[in-house]
């Protein structure tokens, strides 16, 4: 590995310290991507805070093991990508793309997911207001009708993946889309609210009864975070 | 139900739920077989019924719409039916590679030795992004059959022309999570203790009909 690819930990700490004092929005971006190096963001609540909807054990494994693995693997792939670019090795760059897509997507998706959940004591489950509420009602009639459609989309995922409430950046309207594995919501659509339908997100508590997980998770959805993403 | 429709039923496990312990827990086996596999079969039967009705009504858009569900649920039924048969209790004679002399000869010829083959297979399993399966497959090479390691996503089955699945390893999280949690590498390492080499040898020496005979039995 070329020594220029090694980042000094002093620089990284300094950057992290400077981002922690800035605005909420900048903190989200800053804490997870410091100078191209991804780091695991802190959960904005305790592991047990989403019980009984999601158990503390699931949250701990999901955050400290699964999300951490995406972060570590993304950084490894990114370093290899930087090397391949430096060497103008296009074949290796292409070979690395699926890894960047998967682990980069895993990092992005989980970061958004932690933010769009909250304990009921911190507003989890309280219905959306304002423009987002109106957009949902315009498209689905009511919040309950929307949840029903969203849960059907979650249940229809064949394998691992996510369901998202997305905003079409061309029309401004909202819709439900599912994504395979760790494919991230990028391009035409803006992620507003995501629910993880990988088995590791619920299996220790719900086993094969995933419909129960999909029903329970609405009790801890942080609609405030969703509203902040909606434009 | 239409008389033209095959109604699939859950094939019984060829051993008890706890027979694969300590490598796969009884709790995993029971949920995996009774709940997950059963759900694929239930969904498949309903979809085949809809397919028959749509065929009768010449409703082509619906027929096309049904395809991905049929592929997924039929794949789930095929894959799990093969999987149960290609596992065996660790202490049994079937779980020793000596139960597959011809297959091992071909494996050594292809990968150099058994260790290298296992390493290649494990690497393939751990490279799966999301849900899926890893398979050892016999491929009709025209002149001579070849062995290849394949991965399939979600419930895609090994059904390509000239392909015979020898054994498969389920890499869905439901196959290991209750016991191994995020420790995928440990599951991949341990499952070799319960591979049924006798079944693998039979599938290797036979054709596709032999590999899929358990499906015929579950109609």
TrEMBL record, chain A:
Its cofactor is Mn(2+). The keyword Flavoprotein does not apply. InterPro entries: Fe/Mn_Superoxide_Dismutase, Mn/Fe_SOD, Mn/Fe_SOD_BS, Mn/Fe_SOD_C, Mn/Fe_SOD_N, Mn/Fe_SOD_N_sf, SOD_C_sf. Keywords: Antioxidant, Manganese, Metal-binding, Oxidoreductase. Mn(2+) binds at residues 62, 110, 196, 200. Its EC number is 1.15.1.1. Residues 128-229 form the Manganese/iron superoxide dismutase C-terminal domain. Residues 39-118 form the Manganese/iron superoxide dismutase N-terminal domain. GO terms for molecular function: manganese ion binding; superoxide dismutase activity. It catalyses: 2 superoxide + 2 H(+) = H2O2 + O2. One of its GO terms (cellular component) is mitochondrion. It comes from the Eukaryota. Destroys radicals which are normally produced within the cells and which are toxic to biological systems. Belongs to the iron/manganese superoxide dismutase family. This is Superoxide dismutase. The lineage of its organism: Eukaryota, Fungi, Dikarya, Ascomycota, Pezizomycotina.
From TrEMBL, chain B:
GO terms for cellular component: mitochondrial matrix. Its EC number is 1.15.1.1. Mn(2+) binds at residues 32, 80, 170, 174. Keywords: Manganese, Metal-binding, Mitochondrion, Oxidoreductase, Transit peptide. One of its GO terms (molecular function) is superoxide dismutase activity. It is an enzyme of class 1 (oxidoreductase). It is found in: Mitochondrion matrix. Transmembrane segments: none annotated. PROSITE patterns: SOD_MN (PS00088). It catalyses: 2 superoxide + 2 H(+) = H2O2 + O2. Residues 102-203 form the Manganese/iron superoxide dismutase C-terminal domain. Residues 7-88 form the Manganese/iron superoxide dismutase N-terminal domain. Its cofactor is Mn(2+). Destroys radicals which are normally produced within the cells and which are toxic to biological systems. Destroys superoxide anion radicals which are normally produced within the cells and which are toxic to biological systems. Belongs to the iron/manganese superoxide dismutase family. Homotetramer. PANTHER family: SUPEROXIDE DISMUTASE (PTHR11404:SF29), SUPEROXIDE DISMUTASE 2 (PTHR11404). This is Superoxide dismutase. It comes from Lepidopterella palustris CBS 459.81.
